[in-house]
Amino acid sequence: MTLHARGLALTTGMLALMAPAAQASIITDFLDRIGGCRKPLSQSFSYEVSPYTPKPYGKALADWTDQDVADFRAYFLVCQTRRPDWQSMGEDNRRDAIRVIDTTLAELRYKVGDARATAAKQRADAAYEAERRRRDDEQRAAEAEATAQRAQAEQAANAEQGHRNDVRQKARQVLTDLLAFTQNELEMLPPRQKLERLDGFIARMQEVGREAGDAPVAKPLLTMLDQTIALRSQIARAQARDMPAARSQAEIGTRSGRDDGAYTDYEWLGQRGIMAMTNPLQREEYRASLARGIDFNVGVSAIEPSASGWLVQLSGRLGAAGTPGQGFFCRVSNGDAASLAVLREIAPPYGIVHVAAPDADEFLMESRPLRIRVVFSPCRITSPSNGTNRRSTAERSELSSAPPAGQANRDETRVETREPVAPSPAGLLCTSRPPRNDAQRAMAHRLRRVWAIPEALRADPSLLLTFSVTLNFDAELTAPPQLVRSQSQAATPGQMQAAVEAARQAIQQQAPYTELGSYAGGMMQVDLTPCD
After folding, report:
1. Residue range 460-497, pLDDT digits in tens
2. How many angstroms separate the first and last alpha carbons of the chain?
3. What are 369-420's pLDDT values in tens digits?
4. 370 exposed, middle or buried (CB, 10 Å; 0-12, 13-18, 19+)?
5. Which end of the chain is more exposed for a tag (fewer CB within 10 A), N or C?
6. Cβ distance 528 to 447 under 8 Å?
């Protein structure tokens, strides 16, 4: 036997010894299942190693290891050694059989390498795509956060602007109310009521000033606050100078707030509440004064169910929604069918009713945070009264000695005359026809009868004056009329000024405007033309 033949026999013997180990792999197990050595290599290879077979010989090509390739070769070499004619074959034939296996193995190694490269590229592409998605997600998250921050900043800016507008409106309202009080009511009140009303305005201005902070509106508000405090000090000094040394027990009882009769003005009830809320020393006196009860026209901002009936939240401004759980309330019993019938007909926050209650059975007042809750009960609700405002017992006693200046003249003026004091030509057609309801037309008709239009303008069809007036729910003026617009194609400045002053005087003299009925309350526009 030649040396080469001995080497080939030795190799064949070693392969035979390795056969049991080769069969332990995934590849050899698969080959055993499909027929083992009975199925020729060429037949299984062409079927298994193809684009249509995802796992050749039980395993994806990209997952084949070098050991898997070695097991594959060893398996088929062992198959050759088990051939019956293997030993009788010539040496050249045995080498040819092994060469066929190695040729197939070379193709297998190429395909395994190609599959590994493809898998590596796919992994790289997937990693790149994952990184791209991560960067995109981070960018979107950053953009979303930036958008949220911009929205939050815009919301904060809007809230701050809304707060400033609200404070500006409060400041304008308190200054307007103070001006109307000092011009129209201050001189008509006794010193005690002057001080109480001024205390209410001072408390309101202090509260609005705290809300205003360093806003531009704070400067005129604080200036007016200093002037109001100085005015109050002046009135207090004059009262102390004129006050007798001894006070009667009846006067002391009147000052305590228990003998003044029911509150007949919602605004006055609220002003005293603000004073007591900002000054704890006044709370007990204010709490005791609530035993006087209430009896006035007022707006309804909300109606809420309670354990035994309904809570009606009161409001001094039509259309103003109250703060939930805070403010002044009336408790109406479920058994009060008449009150409930009136409440069913209104639409908060635009409804107006007349409320009457003997006392407050719930009282809560705190300074920090500011909170007030007063519930009157039992409360009787009726339709709003269109009559003149009722006065308390103390007010009637203080004002009974002499009527207000000009009261007799105003009463006489409100009586309709047969003809206007300054009539316009019959058939005059005015160029402006303001839209009005029946109540407003009746009001304009009454004002036209007492409006002393200058003679040169009585036939002017283009004359139109527009005033802004503020009324309480008893149809009384709570502030001087403010001119909004004046137009005429014929009037000189002097004639227009005379027409405006005459109209303003007529509006002030003719109040209250009972023909407005439930339309009274809040701010309204009054248009005057010669054709009214």
Report:
1. 999 999 998 988 888 889 888 988 888 898 889 888 98
2. 144
3. 778 889 999 999 998 865 444 444 344 334 333 344 444 444 444 444 457 8
4. middle
5. N
6. yes
> Which residue(s) pair with 331 in the sheet?
311
The first and second tokens of residue 288, run together, are: 């005791």
CA 378 – CA 359 distance, rounded (Å): 8
Structure tokens at 34: 């499909």
Q: Is 294 helix (H, G, I), strand (E, B) or coil?
A: strand
Q: Tell me the C-alpha distance between 211 and 163, whole Å.
A: 9
- Beta 294-305 vs 482-487: how paired, if at all? unpaired
In angstroms, the CA 349 to CA 299 distance is 7
Question: What SS3 state is found at 483?
Answer: strand
pTM of the model: 0.36
Q: In CATH terms, is domain 438-528 a member of 3.30.1150.10?
A: yes
Alpha carbons 336 and 195: distance in angstroms, whole number: 39
Q: E-strand spans in 378-505?
A: 380-382, 464-471, 482-487
- The 3-class SS string of 240-279 reads HHHCCCCCCHHHHHHHCCCCCCCECCHHHHHHHHHHHHHC
Going from N- to C-terminal start, the domains of the chain cover 48-238, 266-382, 438-528
> Alpha-carbon distance 141 to 133, whole Å?
12
CATH architecture of 266-382: Beta Barrel (2.40)
